[in-house]
């Protein structure tokens, strides 16, 4: 507390010396005192009045009878003097210093020279200009004054320096000097007190920033000192450090105007900068209200993380660069991490350059920014078949306008709620650009650019619910990925809207396996590089895949033990609407729905989507593996630029969908031209079925794939005979229709599984 008391003394009243009309006393150099009244006393005592500050330096009269002018004093004060001349003095000048100005300022080369002073020959309040901290350098100096009453036990080597603590000026003995080791008069008094501004610097504690010295302890002491005073630390220069611990009370750690650099010299610790909290053990008070800004954190291929916070709140991490992290082996690397209980922090405009996994491996797990609460289960409980909530969340944090390059993950949220991830650029991630998994809910992910990812642009899984994914751009040319945006295994109620997706992944947007109640709307998918589908929903994963599940994800087998199957509960109740699918690749389905194994697919509403440009293999492809497990799904008002009705597929007919209406092509008057010789044409592909292409005599015994209440128009053929059968097709008069030309039509309606003739054109 001695430092705090020191500041209290500096801010004491002026003891009557400044009182209007009072007596002012100045201590002359050497011996003797002068007294005076009013403004005349200022000159007699050698005390400059405040009106002198900012006046032309050439016109200021000497401050004492010894000839010490204000110009000479400011010159002795160096950079601090310049601040005084400009009216920018940041500290309150104590009375003892005012008294001392009447004497010459003593110049010292370094802090090490302070021990050469003879206390008995010096005047209380005497001023000292110390050029540097270490001999032979130019940093760490300041203006000091002598306080003969200050206990030497208050020595800290920086703001309070005992004259009788020995130091040889060498970096190796710096820590001992700062600790007061070797004090020869421990119960005595008399110290030099440093005058400093609102910011603390590591140079005050002997940091060298010379490229070889380990400045960790000096910087740490500066941080600890600033915490005591409720101040901040400015880092200017390149400092070699291991790791620094910030505890509650530090106002800021700043790179200043020059963008200070911390260069790791070891991999010890969780991060180069640790914001302490409960995670670090014991009853540690979390850091609150601290700003870390403008720093270059050079991991030097040794440090695993840049900044790590535990339960930090209302902190701002902005404008920093993190690069050269450890890259020799697989590890949990991270640029910036907010962990376990971090709330209301802002991570803004940082640049993080992550290592790249070496060719041929091993895979490096490296994330740019992590917001990670505490979860006891990496699958959110879905490996056991039941959701397990997180035990401690990170919430209400803002991650905005950061730039993350390379690594495996750009931004990763775990057990995180009510956070905003906005306007970031994530580029070149080997796995996911932005990942919400597990147990990540009620977050907003908007306006981000996910570029050149391998696996997925934005990924949600394992109990990540009710998030808004909007206005993001996911663009990648890699042909190894899973999906531009994907949601699977126990995700509920997410909104995916207004995103732009162009990638070489299996899918543009993908939802699967116990994934329900999503709204996927108004997205633009340029699907020219997709390998499976532009939009896909499937109820389960299976390996090997059924023969006709041609657009299902191919690379998944059983879940981890103890679970034996994935699809325990249904997938569905989704709104997939008003999306624009542009230039779909030739071999894909624009829209794919698949019910697999016994996992239900239910209540998926596919409506108002538009397919523009190139012809895909299928406009929409609906597959049902187990009869009766696909229920309540709808295909309404979708349109494709092409008119080929055969580019649709219903594995069990329209009945597996539930409602099929107003689609183009399909149930419009674009005809389905049935191949010649087909005995049971499909009524699933269109409401207009033409037999005109038949070239050989064929008996038509049924129209398969129809749905209850469906009406179809059948164009006849001289080669086709429609067979009357009370169980399948009931024709008027109970007679077959045979040998009628293509100029004739009949209308049929499906009721209770039977086609009834409604009318005929002849």
Automatic annotation (TrEMBL):
Region (Disordered): 1-43
Ranges annotated as biased composition (Basic and acidic residues): 1-10
Name of the molecule in the record: Parallel beta-helix repeat protein
Top-level taxon in the UniProt lineage: Bacteria
Biased composition (Gly residues): 18-37
Annotated SUPFAM superfamilies: Pectin lyase-like
Entry-linked InterPro entries: NosD_dom, PbH1, Pectin_lyas_fold, Pectin_lyase_fold/virulence, TAT_signal
Residue stretches making up the Periplasmic copper-binding protein NosD beta helix domain: 390-553
């Amino acid at each position: 507390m001695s430092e705090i008391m020191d500041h209290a003394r500096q801010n004491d009243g002026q003891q009557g010396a400044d009182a209007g009309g009072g007596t002012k006393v100045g201590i002359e150099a050497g011996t003797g005192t002068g007294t005076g009244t009013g403004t005349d006393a200022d000159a007699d005592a050698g005390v400059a009045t405040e009106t002198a500050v900012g006046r032309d330096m050439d016109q200021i009269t000497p401050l004492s009878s010894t000839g010490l002018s204000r110009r000479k004093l400011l010159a002795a004060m160096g950079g601090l003097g310049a601040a005084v001349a400009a009216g920018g003095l940041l500290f309150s000048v104590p009375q003892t210093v005012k008294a001392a100005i009447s004497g010459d300022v003593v110049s010292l080369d370094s802090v090490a020279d302070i021990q050469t002073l003879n206390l008995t020959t010096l005047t209380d309040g005497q001023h000292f200009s110390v050029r540097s901290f270490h001999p032979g350098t130019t940093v760490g100096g300041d203006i000091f004054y002598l306080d003969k009453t200050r206990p030497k036990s208050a020595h800290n080597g920086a703001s309070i320096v005992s004259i009788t603590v020995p130091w040889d000026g060498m970096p190796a003995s710096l820590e001992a000097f700062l600790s007061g080791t070797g004090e020869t008069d421990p119960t005595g008094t008399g110290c030099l007190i440093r005058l400093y501004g609102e910011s603390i610097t590591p140079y005050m504690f002997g940091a060298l920033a010379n490229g070889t010295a380990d400045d960790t302890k000096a910087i740490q002491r500066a941080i600890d000192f600033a915490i005591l005073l409720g101040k901040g630390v400015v880092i200017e220069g390149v400092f070699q450090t291991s790791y620094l611990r910030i505890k509650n009370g530090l106002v800021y750690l700043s790179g200043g105007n020059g963008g200070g650099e911390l260069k790791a010299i070891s991999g010890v610790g969780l991060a180069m900068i640790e914001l302490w909290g409960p995670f670090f053990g014991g009853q540690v008070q979390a850091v609150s209200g601290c700003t870390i800004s403008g720093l270059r954190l050079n991991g030097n291929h040794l440090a695993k993380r840049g900044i790590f916070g535990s339960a930090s709140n209302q902190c701002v991490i902005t404008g920093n660069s993190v690069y050269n992290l450890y890259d020799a082996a697989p590890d949990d690397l991270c640029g910036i991490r907010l962990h376990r209980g971090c709330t209301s922090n802002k991570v803004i405009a940082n640049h993080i350059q992550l290592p790249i996994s070496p060719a041929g491996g091993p895979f490096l797990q490296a994330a740019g920014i992590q917001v990670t609460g505490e979860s006891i289960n990496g699958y959110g409980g879905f490996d056991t078949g039941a959701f397990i909530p997180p035990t401690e969340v990170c919430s209400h944090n803002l991650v905005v306008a950061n730039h993350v390059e390379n690594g495996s993950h750009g931004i990763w949220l775990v057990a995180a709620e009510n956070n905003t991830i906005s306007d970031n650029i994530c580029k070149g991630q080997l796995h996911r650009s932005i990942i919400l998994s597990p147990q990540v809910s009620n977050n907003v992910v908007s306006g981000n650019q996910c570029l050149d990812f391998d696996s997925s642009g934005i990924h949600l899984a394992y109990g990540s619910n009710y998030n808004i994914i909007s206005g993001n751009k996911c663009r990648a040319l890699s042909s190894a990925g899973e999906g531009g945006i994907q949601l699977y295994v126990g995700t509920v109620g997410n909104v995916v809207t207004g995103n732009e997706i162009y990638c070489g992944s299996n899918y543009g947007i993908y939802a699967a396996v116990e994934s329900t109640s999503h709204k996927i709307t108004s997205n633009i998918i340029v699907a020219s590089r997709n390998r499976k589908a532009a939009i896909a929903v499937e109820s389960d994963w299976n390996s090997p895949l059924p023969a006709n599940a041609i657009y299902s994800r191919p690379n998944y087998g059983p879940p981890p033990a103890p679970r034996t199957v994935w699809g325990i509960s249904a997938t569905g109740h989704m709104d997939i609407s008003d999306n624009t699918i542009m230039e779909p690749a030739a071999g894909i389905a624009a829209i794919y729905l698949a019910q697999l194994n016994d996992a239900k697919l239910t209540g998926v509403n596919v409506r108002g989507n538009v397919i523009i440009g190139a012809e895909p293999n299928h406009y929409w492809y609906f597959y049902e593996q187990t009869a009766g497990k696909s229920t309540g799904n709808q295909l309404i008002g979708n349109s494709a630029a092409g008119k080929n009705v055969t580019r649709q597929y219903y594995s069990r007919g329209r009945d597996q969908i539930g409602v099929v209406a107003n689609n183009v092509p399909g149930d419009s008057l674009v005809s389905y031209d049935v191949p010649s010789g087909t005995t049971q044409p499909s009524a699933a592909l269109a409401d207009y079925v033409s037999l005109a292409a038949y070239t050989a005599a064929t008996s038509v015994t049924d129209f398969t794939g129809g749905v209850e209440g469906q009406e179809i128009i059948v164009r006849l053929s001289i080669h086709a005979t429609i067979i009357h059968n009370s169980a399948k097709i009931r024709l008027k008069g109970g007679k077959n229709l045979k040998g009628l030309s293509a100029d004739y039509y009949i209308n049929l309606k499906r009721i209770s599984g039977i086609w009834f003739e409604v009318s005929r054109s002849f």
